[in-house]
Input
Amino acid sequence: MFELHHLSAQEQWDWLHRREISPRELVSHYLERIERLDPQLGAFVTVTGEAALERADTLAHAEDRTAALWGLPFADKDLTMRAGVPAKFGSRLLADFVPDTSDELPQTLDAAGAISLGKTNTPEFGMPSYTESRVAPPARTPWNTALGAGGSSGGAAVAVAAGLLPFAPGSDGGGSIRIPAAATGLVGLKPSRGLVPAASGIGSLAGLPVAGPIARTVADAAMLLDAMIGDAPFPYTLRAPRSPEGPLLGSAVRGEGRYQIAVMTTTPWDEAYEITIAPEARDALDRAVREVSAIGHGLEELALEPSPDYAPNFRTIWQAGAASIPAEGDAMELLEPLTRWLVRRGRELSARQLAEALSWLTGFERSVIRQFAHVDAVLTPTLAMTPRPLGWYDQEDGERNFEQQVQYTPFTSFVNVCGLPAITLPVHETAEGVPMGVQLIGRPGGEATLLALGAQLERRVGWQRRHPPQW
Output
């Protein structure tokens, strides 16, 4: 039986503009699904149904319906603040915090005409690559609810995969869009540093975290990304302007071009940890290689130059990023063991250690961009393993936990260090029906190329026609 969530986000937008449905009807449809399905999935931590319906009615009476996302539902990740809505940041430390101002990204999406239905689940302060906090149920991949959805945008990915939202914004500081998108069978795009003005990464430590879209199709991801960029006069990356062809949606819809692609299975973690690519991840990569070759793209192999200093320097930044978490004295006991370990390690670092790590990572960024410069995109697995069972990560030993995260996600963090765009695409599923994705890494400002390649693969693979049982 047909239901509204079976439509793509673009199709829903079209139905809204043709008045075949109203914003209230669409919002009500998703709110009903959230109420019925989310208790078994853990996608949301807060649902703002009444406010969403009021906004839907307001939009319905507005004369101007030209906004890029007019009438479309989404949800804010619970690492962003929206005035009057709890912002728990996945932590008992802020379990009762309700901000009185909104961050810039929710304001940008509101200006684009979208309707927030609430807050999506995230791990404590977004630090881990899995979403299993102590203030909310774990985020479970809808394909197998015994498995985690990854993180830190785990709740956002679950909501989109299960048809609780048409798409959702996420944030990515080391893979936090691409990891959950791969674990739930979705398209997830981490933009170039600086492209999304409201969450550019430029003002953050090492420039790691940026905001980007999670969606079921490449075109829907581009549609949301264009809205996240907005109409600000300064959408830019550090090295390249936004596509001169205009909105990125055009590249995703046309899906044109022939490109040179390098296939890579090495990672900057290889000298520090035992990195093993599981057969399922290898199968996904092989599938992508076959499809790319059939389309007619050029293929070559590439191996990263050895970088034994990457692991200690990235660890320094990860720990330093936790040092400012607002926990002092007895409040430290409200933090989860991993976060508490990170905070303490971060506060033990000297200014010299931090400066040396930042300097080294800047040199690493330049080196990687040089190594990738002769190709249009680099193809890797997104994850080295299948989605991890709930409870798999060590909750007490910070060192062991870090190692587990690296072994699961060795292909993602270095892309953030380098400020490059990357997209994960759900090209494969295991014999048990669990999705597996691949990652395409682009040149600085190369989102249009990634979206075009993604559209070409989507046409051949047809992942948008695969859905989990809750669909």
User: Anything to note?
Assistant: The radius of gyration is 21 Å. The mean pLDDT is 96. The chain has one domain: 9-465. The longest helix spans residues 351-372.
